[in-house]
Design a protein that fits this description.
Distance between the termini: 29 Å
Strand content: 35-45%
Radius of gyration: 24 Å
Low-confidence stretches: none
Helix content: 25-40%
Shape: elongated
Oligomer: single chain
Order of helices and strands: EEEHEEEHHHEHEHEEHHEEEEEEHEE
Length: about 350
């Protein structure tokens, strides 16, 4: 593995304990809510925070363990910070050349390398501009070029889309993916945006309260979430229950009928779009129905998402026409129904 790390860092009441393995050419995304320990992990990998315990080994070279600590400026690591942290008084060219100059390169050589990178990132026309004159997407590419200028073996990206407006993100995300595919080292991306993770990464690690709660490919994590946070991240409802055949008893007292038989503790995952909403108790094909009350409604593009308090509490996606026809408003009493075949069940 290009990167083999166990990052253990005590930060007040939070103890971060995260293990990461990334092969050369691989992109790993660390996902998690605010305060989960994502940025702490990234800063420890960069050498900006000391480990309490653990290790960081890059291409077989120990950068951190109980006997060794290689300082940040001596690590073969490039970092793109959330706000890019470009030097405001330097041109794009000199920002990119800065790391090379700091490592002893002469001015002419460093600027020549910077010009090559700026051309690769389609920024030659902006080489003489200072950061204040760059667009958000241009500033991000300059920051990425600066990180790559020192030929790192490990690239660290901290919320690379956070400073961009929604209209710019799609184009920049696609562009960034192309650059990461061309990078031969290991990449660790920190984000709370599932779309960034799904588009940019080939492996995910989900962190909550300083601990890894789930890892796998994007498809694996999306198919079988193991915490409420992960389920909401990938747009699913998740319920924990005890299965006996095709009956799953939830902790809140509700029993669901599922399509396949299981035994023991299970997760039940349910797409918000698979839930039908009625004003009165439904009769007919749905085998699971329960009363609820609409807590809130919010627009999500072509649909509206309702939070419906049960038990069980669920997210429901509805068309605007359905909301109007059912006269759904916060506080409205409803019935939710779902077919057994729409419930995905897997062991805890």
């Amino acid at each position: 593995m290009s990167l083999d790390a166990q990052v253990i860092v005590a930060r007040g009441s939070l103890v971060v304990d995260v293990s990461l393995q990334v092969p050369s050419g691989g992109v790993l995304a660390v996902l998690g809510p605010n305060g989960a320990g994502k940025t702490t992990t990234l800063r420890a990998l960069a050498g900006l925070l000391p480990l309490s315990r653990g290790h960081v080994i890059l291409d077989g070279v120990v950068l951190d363990d109980d006997r060794t600590h290689v300082p940040a400026e001596r690590r073969p690591v490039g970092v793109v910070f959330q706000d890019y942290l470009l030097f405001p008084t330097l041109s794009a060219r000199d920002n990119v050349a800065f790391g090379l100059r700091a490592r002893g390169a002469d001015r002419a050589g460093a600027r020549a390398t910077a010009d090559q990178l700026l051309e690769r990132f389609d920024l030659s026309a902006q080489a003489d501009l200072r950061p204040a004159k760059l667009s958000g997407g241009q500033a991000q590419r300059v920051a990425l070029a600066r990180a790559l200028a020192v030929s790192p073996q490990l690239l660290l990206l901290d919320e690379p889309m956070a400073a961009l407006d929604a209209g710019t993100r799609m184009t920049v995300r696609t562009d960034l993916r192309a650059h990461l595919e061309a990078f031969g080292g290991a990449t660790v991306l920190v984000t709370h945006d599932p779309l960034d993770a799904l588009v940019l990464a080939d492996h995910l690690v989900v962190v909550e309260d300083g601990r890894v709660v789930q890892s796998g490919t994007p498809a694996e994590v999306a198919r079988a979430p193991r915490t409420d946070y992960v389920a909401r991240l990938v747009g699913l409802n998740l319920m924990l229950g005890l299965a006996e055949g095709t009956a799953v008893a939830l902790a809140d007292g509700v029993t669901l009928t599922v399509a396949s038989a299981h035994r023991g503790p299970v997760y039940v995952a349910l797409r918000p779009s698979a839930i039908a909403v009625y004003q009165e108790q439904p009769h007919g094909s749905p085998r699971n129905a329960w009363p609820g009350r609409v807590r809130s409604l919010e627009s999500r593009g072509d649909t509206l998402r309702a939070v419906v308090d049960g038990p069980p509490d669920v997210l429901v996606d509805l068309t605007a026409a359905a909301v109007a026809e059912l006269r759904l408003v916060p506080g409205a009493a409803v019935w939710c129904a779902v077919k057994a075949t729409e419930l995905d069940v897997y062991p805890v």
